[in-house]
């Protein structure tokens, strides 16, 4: 029988963190899951570390050919999944022990919900919390998916968090065409929007994951590109769903995305010494 949940990890050059990521998934209080890990032709020791876990019956290890960006590997692990629900965890992030337990209960209590997200802690390279309980922009409980999408536009930032914060109905993700990389730095948020326009959103205020800031994060180097792509994302949603996103929403969201990019840049500069595992 297929597992209830597929946890999928698209790994790439995560040598310093991948073991902690895998261990956090294997330590879940909810046990009806499979773990699929695909190494995207890493050039460091990531693949060797992953292979150490290959004897665990819950784990499937795959290889992904080089090229294709994040989309290739994210779709690779997702296409291999068989669970009713899917959680993607990047190769340097952490799940807290009750993550699957809490989110599966939340989505099963509400059949109309297509996506559940929780707050998360922002941690440094050593796992020390920098910012606690980040995300959701004040949303609690269940809201219409369209309203949650509008909220993420107006806020100008991904209120749902990184994939480790999210549990999605796999059939809905397949229905919308898997991961959407038309805005590469917003591959998660764009896909969430597509999924949420098919159903409702459930917010869990308990932090259930940790997002690691490190010197390998693309967001450290490309905050300006992120704000430009956020504006493109907002305009695309407005064009595709004018009944959901207004022109005013786009104007406000674009301004806030620009501001958030600058705030993020200064935050990364302030935290730069905490973004790798080697002391300067």
From TrEMBL:
Cited InterPro entries: Glyco_trans_2-like, Nucleotide-diphossugar_trans
Keyword presence, Transferase: yes
Annotated keywords: Transferase
Domain Glycosyltransferase 2-like span(s) in chain numbering: 6-127
Domain of life of the organism encoding this protein: Bacteria
Gene Ontology molecular functions: hexosyltransferase activity
Record-linked Pfam families: Glycos_transf_2 (PF00535)
Name of this protein: Glycosyl transferase
Origin species: Subtercola boreus
């Amino acid at each position: 029988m297929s597992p209830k949940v597929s946890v999928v990890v698209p790994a790439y050059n995560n040598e310093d963190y991948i073991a902690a990521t895998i261990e956090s998934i294997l330590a879940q209080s909810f046990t009806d899951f499979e773990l699929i890990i695909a190494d995207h032709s890493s050039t460091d020791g990531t693949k060797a570390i992953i292979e150490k876990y290959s004897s665990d019956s819950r784990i499937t290890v795959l290889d992904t050919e080089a090229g294709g960006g994040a989309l290739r590997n994210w779709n690779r692990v997702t296409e291999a999944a068989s669970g009713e629900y899917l959680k993607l965890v990047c190769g340097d992030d952490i799940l807290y022990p009750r993550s699957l337990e809490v989110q599966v209960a939340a989505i099963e209590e509400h059949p109309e919900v297509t996506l559940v997200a929780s707050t998360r802690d922002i941690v440094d390279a050593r796992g020390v919390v920098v910012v606690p309980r980040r995300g959701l922009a004040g949303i609690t409980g269940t809201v219409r998916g369209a309203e949650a999408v509008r909220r993420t536009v107006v806020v100008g930032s991904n209120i749902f968090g990184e994939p480790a914060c999210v549990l999605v109905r796999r059939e809905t993700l397949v229905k919308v065409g898997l991961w959407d990389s038309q805005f590469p730095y917003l591959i998660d948020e764009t896909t969430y929007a597509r999924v949420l326009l098919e159903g409702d959103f459930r917010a869990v205020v308990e932090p259930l994951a940790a997002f690691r800031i490190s010197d390998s994060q693309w967001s450290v180097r490309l905050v300006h590109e992120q704000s430009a792509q956020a504006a493109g994302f907002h305009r695309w949603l407005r064009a595709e769903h004018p009944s959901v996103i207004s022109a005013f929403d786009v104007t406000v969201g674009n301004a806030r995305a620009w501001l958030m990019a600058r705030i993020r840049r200064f935050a990364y500069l302030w935290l730069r010494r905490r973004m790798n595992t080697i002391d300067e």
